[in-house]
Amino acid sequence: MWITSVFDVILFFIPMNSLLTALLLLICLTTSVAQNYDEAKVPAYVLPPLLKTTAGQEVKSKKMWEDVRRPEILRLFEDNIYGQMPKDYDSIRYTLKNGDRAAMNGKATLKEVAVQVYRNRKSVQINVVMFVPNHAKKPAPVFVLINNRGRENTDPTRKVKSGFWPAEMVIDSGYAVAAFHVSDLAPDNKDTFINGVLQLYPEQLEADNGMKAIGAWAWGASRVMDYFENDKDIDPKNVIVVGHSRGGKASLWAAAQDQRFAVCVTNCSGNTGAALARRQFGERITRINTTFPHWFNNNYKKFNANENQLPVDQHMLIALIAPRPLYATNASKDLWADPTGTFLALKKAEEVYALYGMRSKLPANPPAINAPVPYAPLAYHNREGEHDLTAYDWGNFIRLVRSRR
Hints:
By secondary structure, the protein is an alpha/beta fold. The protein has helices at 2-13, 19-32, 62-82, 103-106, 167-172, 197-200, 203-206, 213-228, 246-257, 285-291, 314-319, 339-355, 391-403, and strands spanning 91-102, 108-119, 122-133, 140-147, 176-181, 234-244, 263-267, 326-331, 378-383. The chain has 2 domains: 2-34, no CATH class; 62-403, Alpha/Beta hydrolase fold, catalytic domain (Rossmann fold, 3-Layer(aba) Sandwich).
């Protein structure tokens, strides 16, 4: 009835000689409401095998995984979804723009650092906001957020405080906390996303498997990791990369590409994040590529409404994090991000963690709402509420990090 009534409205306002335009608009409207939220309508699907090479060989050891299968899978994601990850640049510089050893009433030191990366006489600047606990007896582990929300969420003055980045909570737990904003790397806009990292790598825009915005944000996380390796207050062996939604897609890709990240957190990342594409539940590839054409490489559009032809699925991306811990989350009212598909992706990735002798503590079925399983190597919870990153989520991320130390 809703679609019929919309069609009637279109016909009322658009002349008959514009009927073709009306029909095209109707198709767009139909697509926008056609997402599946019914488990009974999830199609039958077969996931690409994790532990079988493209040549058909069974992978039975971590050496074969690391030497053969992992590089294959990484390349498949590069070529078909996220794009290449350029490694070269001419130089990198770190500048402390602002510091305050009496931040948070003396509990922390504030550092505002500019990470400047140069290539071919061009540069990009990543602005890092960071707090380090003052009473740490040794270099501190650090949570670094890929911030895809407003900069006020990571306010260095702390006049504005947000559950999206509860810096005081992290400091009180004995850890450092940092953030950078995605717009420093690639503005989240289909018309302006090239105004950042891609100015350094214009060749990526010409390649069908070239990096776009999500890849640029992940690239930026690695340059911030470069900085952490040069900050005596930070333990570079214990850097936890965190992202929410599209930032959670980027945190997964960053950790898959850069094995220096000790832990990966992906919060409500959904389609092309931690959720299985082949379930066709919630957001689908067609919708994400249409709404956000600047996020993924050109080749990904070949799989619009064609998920089963993908040579990979998201359980394989999660497996690339192994043997490092990974925490994935969902929210009960965020069916768009497919909580069940996220949990199933984690369960399937257990096969690779098992190669390292690591046993997952995840139950056989998705846990109840607000019943977190915050333990390495694969952690998960489905929080009550909306699509968001909250203090509840952060509290459980901290529990995971504590459990492994």
